[in-house]
Amino acid sequence: MRAHAWIALSLAFATSASAADTDQRVLWRLEIDGNHAIATDELLDAIHSAPTSHIPVIGPFFGGVHRFDPVAFRADQQRIEHLYRRLGYFQAKVDAADVKPCSKEGRVCARLHVKEGEPTRIASLKVREVDSHPPRGEDELTRVLGLRAGEIFRHDDYLRAKTTMARYLRERSYPLPEVKGEVLYREAANTVDINITVKAGTTAKLGFISFDGLDQIRAEDAMARLPISTGMAYDPKLFDSAGDLLGDLDVFSTIDVELKPRQGDPGVADVVYHVHEKQLKTLQLGAGMRIENSRQEARGRVEWTNRNFYRHLRNFDARFEPRYAVLPSVFRPQQSGPLGDVDLSLKQPSFLSPWQDLRSSVGFDADLEQGYRYYGPRFGTALERRLNHKVTFGTGYVFRYLTFYDVDVGSTSSSSSAVPLELLQTGNYRLGFVEQHVRWDDRDDRVEPHRGTLVQFGVQESSQLLASAFTYFRAAPEVRQYFPETNRATLAMRAFFGRIAPLLGNATPITERFYGGGANDHRGFSYHRLSPQTLTSDARSVPVGGVTELLVSAEERVNLFRLGDHWVIGALFVDAGDVVASPSELDVKRLHIAAGPGLRYNSPIGVIRADLGVRLNRLGEQSDGHPNPDPGKPIAIHVSFGESF
Fold first, then answer.
1. Which of 50, 406, 461, 607 is the most exposed, having the fewest neighbouring CB atoms within 10 Å of its CB?
2. Which residues pair with 575 in a beta bridge?
3. Mind listing the pLDDT tens digit for each residue in 565-584?
């Protein structure tokens, strides 16, 4: 039996070809067969060759026409074999590759046949501990690795086991552990022997802490953000939190931490943060639109930011968002006009503690809603504290002073509690409340998550003691979960519940009630249309919000193909929910249900999204004696930016 030393897998190939080496024919179709352990989509993602899209407009405008490159095609066969080896199939090989003309002149069809063979298994696992003070014990270290004899050997699992071992040792105050491994492949038996050498080193305390790469930012301001200090025992969790806290400042494009054992004193490790500063003053311009059945809106954005305003890493932000809205549509305009927001905000990081940020803002809002318009100033201040790299908590105060005009809301035939009586009264609308929120977030990406969980819970309390004309309590918990099904498919789920309760017999403010419907809510309804409604003077129904909302959603997202360097994503979703004027009216057996398809393009400026929601029930004037919002309108179209959740 012959043994071959195999220390690392080469997972990437650099292939180049001159223009003369590239075939001018179009690669029209590429098939892979014989594969069972790895899906065809994953193999196609791992290789260079890609078939041309059959959608006519894609090729000319987005570079979707792919020429057949024989050099890359030969390298792709090696890429497939190395992917199989990484996943534990050392005997796998591409044993046939065919290229032939197809369809019409100028096009070729290619086929690769894979012979997978049997998976390679772990025959033995040995862990050796050297120069550890005190020793951890080889049995304990073997348990930490998580690898077992008899299992299929996967290279990613092997690398993850070494990373887990290093992490385990760092968590026990060994800041500079060394974990080395050797994998011996026995070809005749199709097995591997794994030998791991662990050198934990010694436990250490932190020495000098410094920054390298600072230019416009003062070292003492950056140091104030760190939850670590000289003399502390090394704790990797604090280092993770320090990285998150520095990243939250949004002033560094890269952050790398280096631990340097002090010469002559291995029990002390000096810390150096190598950083690269971003541009601290920026001006951003943008434009966008929102298209809904009941609201169409064009908007602009001008934003100037100074991330080191009068030093101490203060973040000053001035934003102006002019908008123009037409309700319900440009083809049937009933209400329209200019509106917008002006906002000035100041954030003081590391307020009294590295873990805390103090934010304050003043602004002016002018908006148009169905049945009324309003304008007025607002002010807010909040203190947010990060408990660790997953959990944040915040508390603050908000005050709004609004003037309503063009009010056209009459009496309602369904529930008197839904009538916004405060709009019909003389005087202005004063709203002051304190709010608290807690958030637990371990998603892998906050913009386009593929795995992880988000749990958040927010409450508001309002009373006359807070300069408010209203007295109420509002709570809104939400859970989002993302399940990775394959590298290109994600199942996203959401559950939201909201309740606002008037206290001392007062009405609830119309701006803080719950409204369902829209691109980011229940997609079977247009913007705010899933809501208790009242009638205008010309018999139009307008939403006035409810006191209780329940919403559950499930969405399957699949990366379909690339346009240029970015994915086109297909989606199928189901939304179920209701918004009611009284808690007793909420019936989980009678929720409004809608389903439909969606398309997303993960463009350089963010996710551009289009969804088509089709209502599946409660389409008539009433259902079981209860009125239904928007009867006879089974379809809602939504075009917007960003994922729904």
1. 406
2. 553, 594
3. 788 999 999 999 999 999 99
